[in-house]
Amino acid sequence: MKNIIEMKDLVKKFGPFTAVDKINISVKEGEIFGFLGPNGAGKTTTISMLTTLIKPTSGKALVAGHDIVTEGVDVRSVIGVVPQQFSLFQELTAEENLVYIGRLYGMSRPAIKERSDYLLKIMSLYDARNRIAGVFSGGMKQRLSLAAGIMSKPKILFMDEPTTGLDPQSRIAIRELTKKLNSEGMTIVYTTHDMDEAEKICDRITIMDKGKVVADGTSEELKHKIASHHEIEIEFEELSADILAALKKLPFVVSLSHQGDIINLTVKERKNVFFMLSSFLNKRNQKVVEIKFKEPSLEDVFIQLTKKDLRDG
After folding, report:
1. Is the pTM for the entire model greater than 0.85?
2. Sheet harboring 17-28: ordered strands across?
3. 146-179 tens-digit pLDDT
4. Domain enclosing residue 125, as ranges
5. β-strand 230-236 against 253-259: which pairing, if any?
6. Which of 37, 128, 211, 244 lies deepest, with the highest CB count within 10 Å?
């Protein structure tokens, strides 16, 4: 797959503050690309530059081959945007909002009617098409924002924390709609600070912190990057104190903790460890319910890379 977005040494400063600090990121055509990071990491500022809302201080970025500074009109013609906060007209109906967007893009009346009806149906808003958008629930407003963002059939859709503040059912609906759009060929750039959401929806993830890229890869690649040791959980039928002491002495065991009949081992490497543990326990006639690896979560990766200190903004 070719790159549809390319950023080279992209920088954005607000006075003395550097919000985005020389980032180099590429997004492949047809993928769901995730920006993950704590508040103030630089995610939204990056998206604002890529969508031509603000100009970079230095560096360069191409969106579908168009320069974000010198070819802003061309960039805007191939993108759609779903902002974090509902930004459509509260006093207009759902249908009127989409008609207005269609007119902005110069679509014909028949095309607007066909496209808006189709989108209202897939967003489960058709029955509410004549209701004022201002009285919609948060989930309905966000689905309408998503419909507006893709009214022009963009090549690339930018979604800036679209599920923030939504109930679980609405979050699931937005995720499913996002996957549907991607399956139809649309490239999605998805910003979030929700690790579970990023893992479920994104093909590849870039973690940002304090304006810099601190890691990039699939969720599995990111997990393995931080795993200097490996965790194993052993559940015993009945755990004896002498087994605990013996396990601690094994040369490949780094540390051990236990709760009830479950032991958690940190080991130096994965290779042959199950065989060695099984042999060790069999010799002692120790009955085991289950032995399994405990892989690090994306949250473990996130916390290790961005630390636990609280962020403002």
Report:
1. no
2. 17-28, 3-14, 58-63, 66-67
3. 999 999 999 999 999 888 888 889 889 999 999 9
4. 3-224
5. unpaired
6. 37
